[in-house]
Amino acid sequence: MAAADDEEEVVDEGLQQGMGKVTDVVAEKELDADKMANAMKEMEAATAAANAEKAEREAALKAIKVDKADVKVIMAEFELKEDPAKRVLQEAGGSLEKALADAVSA
After folding, report:
1. What is the spatial distance between Cα 45 and Cα 84, in angstroms, rounded to a whole number?
2. Burial 45-76 (b: 16+ CB within 10 A, else e)
3. 3-state secondary structure of 17
């Protein structure tokens, strides 16, 4: 009888060790899943912040008024269509001189 009890104890210890390994693996996977979820949240937050910054910049540029004659000068000098020429002027703060200087120095 003692031999059978010893065998059961050995089997029980082996099962406990095996279960311990399984639970360790499950715990690691849960930690990895938590890390992944946190990383995804951080990426989403960074993307949202970048999109908000871009939208804010676009709104600020659209608010800059440009002279139609200046747009025509940029169109003629750089062979651009109206919208890209207007954008060049808006990025230069509406100043034809600055837009031309920026284009020459670029």
Report:
1. 31
2. eeeeeeeeeeeeeeeeeeeeebeeebbebbbe
3. helix
> With a threshold of 0.70, does the pTM exceed it?
no
Q: Is the dihedral of CA 60, 66, 72, 78 positive or negative?
A: negative
Tokens of residue 6, six digits: 């010893």
Answer for the pair 103, 88: CB distance below 8 angstroms, yes or no: yes
Whole-number CA gyration radius for the chain: 33
Longest dimension (CA), the chain: 106
Q: How is residue 104 written in tokens? A: 């020459």
Measure the CA–CA gap between 27 and 39, rounded to whole angstroms. 18
Listed residue (60, 92, 62, 61) closest to 78, CA to CA: 92
Instruction: Please report which helix (H) or strand (E) contains residue 38, including its range.
Output: helix 2-62
82: how many CB neighbours lie within 10 A of its CB? Answer: 12
The model's confidence at residue 19, banded by pLDDT at 50, 70 and 90, is low
